[in-house]
Amino acid sequence: MGQIHILPLLEIKAETRAQLLEAIEQQVQWPAAIEALEFDPRFAYDQIRGQYHSSQILLGLHSKLNRPQDKIIAIVPFDLYIPILTYVFGEAQLDGPAAVVSLFRLRPEFYGLPPVPARVVERLIKESIHELGHTFGLRHCPQPECVLHASTYVEEIDLKSHTFCPDCSALLQAAQAKRRTAAPAG
């Protein structure tokens, strides 16, 4: 079994860290740890767009992993994009090791609304679990309440739960079982 390395590139309150770790470990069923690794994402900044290219960040995160069975997820404060979309809340390598989630558009203040810290934490948890699901090979789910349901707008994040639907949960367990049997002993 691997480990999930959570790399926050901003200050996260201890209470939020605890909630995030608990939710990830409960839903993904893998041990997780928040780590302070050196990672400078400036190479992924696009001056014309004023955003960071999330796919480039994912490639850069590869060098932070020591074991091939581990996963890494960066939590960033800045706006993310991929070339075919105006923005993304996050991105992950399908059946790969790396994911990234941005808090930039998860905050109500971005939409001119008053801060609601609890809502930001809920959104962060949902998007982190969503992206980690992709790293285990799971694709978007048609069930609107499933955490793997695609979210184009922040309101769609609010409508879904932080849990996998029964079908996605079964797919996750199968993917993890396959990894355990394929992992070298040691």
Entry keywords:
18% strand, alpha/beta, 35% helix, four-stranded mixed β-sheet, single chain, Collagenase (Catalytic Domain)
| N-to-C CA distance | 11 Å
What is the overall shape?
A: globular
CATH names the topology as Collagenase (Catalytic Domain)
Q: What order do the strands of the largest sheet run in, or round the barrel if closed?
A: 2-1-5-9-8
Please report the number of helical segments.
Answer: 5
Instruction: Tell me the name of the CATH class.
Output: Alpha Beta
The CATH fourth-level homologous superfamily: Collagenase (Catalytic Domain)
Which percent range describes the beta-strand content? 15-25%
In terms of structural class, how would the helical and strand content be classed? Answer: alpha/beta
Question: Gist?
Answer:
This protein has 186 residues and is an alpha/beta fold. It contains 5 helices and 9 strands; from the N terminus they run E-H-E-E-E-H-E-E-E-E-E-H-H-H. It has a single domain, classed as Collagenase (Catalytic Domain) (3-Layer(aba) Sandwich).
Topology:
Layout: E1 4-8, H1 14-28, E2 32-34, E3 45-46, E4 51-53, H2 54-61, E5 71-76, E6 80-82, E7 85-88, E8 90-92, E9 98-102, H3 117-135, H4 154-159, H5 166-182
Parallel strand pairs: 1-2, 1-5, 4-6, 5-9
Antiparallel strand pairs: 3-4, 6-7, 8-9
Helix pairs in contact: 1-3
Explained architecture:
- With 186 residues, the protein is α/β, with parallel strands linked by helices.
- The protein has one domain (4-182): Collagenase (Catalytic Domain).
- Helices cover 35% and strands 18% of the residues.
- The chain contains five helices and nine strands.
- The protein has helices spanning 14-28, 54-61, 117-135, 154-159, 166-182; strands at 4-8, 32-34, 45-46, 51-53, 71-76, 80-82, 85-88, 90-92, 98-102.
- The strands form two sheets. It has a five-stranded mixed beta sheet, sandwiched between helices.
- α1 runs parallel beside α3.
- The longest helix is centred in the C-terminal third of the chain and has 19 residues, at 117-135.
- The model has no long low-confidence stretch (mean pLDDT 93).
